[in-house]
Amino acid sequence: MARTIERIVLPSPSPGTERHLVVHRFGRKGARPRVWLQAAIHADELPGPLVLHHLMPKLAEADRNGQIPGEIMVAPFANPVGLTQVVGSVLQGRYALDGSGNFNRGFLDLRDALEEAMAGKLGNDAAANVTAIRATIEALLAEHKADDESAILKLTLHRLAATADIALDLHCDDQAALHIYCGPRQAVAFADLAARLGAAALLTAGDSGDTPFDEALTRPWWRLMERYQDKPIPNDAMISCTVELRGRADIDDATAQRDADGIFDWLQARGAISGKAPPAVAPCPATPLDGVGPVRTPHAGLWVPCVEPGTRVTAGQIVGHLIDPMLPADAGRLALKAPVAGTMFARMRPDLAKAGDRVAKVASPQSIPGRRGKLLGDR
Ligand SMILES: [Zn+2]
Q: Which of 105, 202, 275, 298 is the most buried (most CB within 10 A)?
């Protein structure tokens, strides 16, 4: 079993209630490489916790065999606040009910503060720079205060992961093939993970327009690399991505075990677990996040998809229909088409759609002119 299990108590949001975060630690505390793995920051996305459930016995065995040179930390349920948000028998968990919004947006953006704090402090020794940058990030996070439970949860996760070498944030989409979001600088590192997980898409963006967890960890480093180009800052001092483990309902032991094996092998290939990892198969080329063509609904209706996630589509191919059953059948059926050629990697489940909903996403190899702003959307 895990070498230690830490229970981090969150401040009570109301009399008589208290929640806590659980972190399993493998390896040696403080040693490197340090890895942070979390799942279900969107508390209603449950494939990730099952993958970590299958991964942890493998980590425990590696730990017993002395194969973890650094430290691997695992938070299987990263959002105990969201987990309590069962409304009318349905687990919500994507948005904080205290009004602070999407649990995976609006993490602290340390770019400006870090750039300012590091002015004149970087030298020509890459390792010394990494140590100084990590210490500064820790200090900036230590200075920050938060009041409400959701903000404190985010800050706690940020502090736990911020000085890791590797951080994976496990999510899922509504109905989807496995896909990964990361920064362009880290496409090579995560192409290997994508290959091991059989991903249908590896989507890259330097700044998606919000501050999800992975970007809160990585973007401050990229800012320093851009600002201080004459100083050595290794590209892999902090790598982080968001893994979308297919769809919300894709929860089964066999799939989760395969995903856990893929993550374990990737960690081994990155040196976080000693020994030789098997070679990766099924390469997955990176494509730009601003090359994702959304299929949107022009009006409300019943969304009925007809293309399975992971399918290659041509531009203009019908991917589903938007139906208004109150109209005669010939007038009440609108075909919705792929805006670009590529892989339709995710879709909204068949359901009532509002006007402007993004009901399917197609990853194309080229940036789409005019695609900017908040690239992740909210669904
Ligand atoms: Zn999510």
A: 202
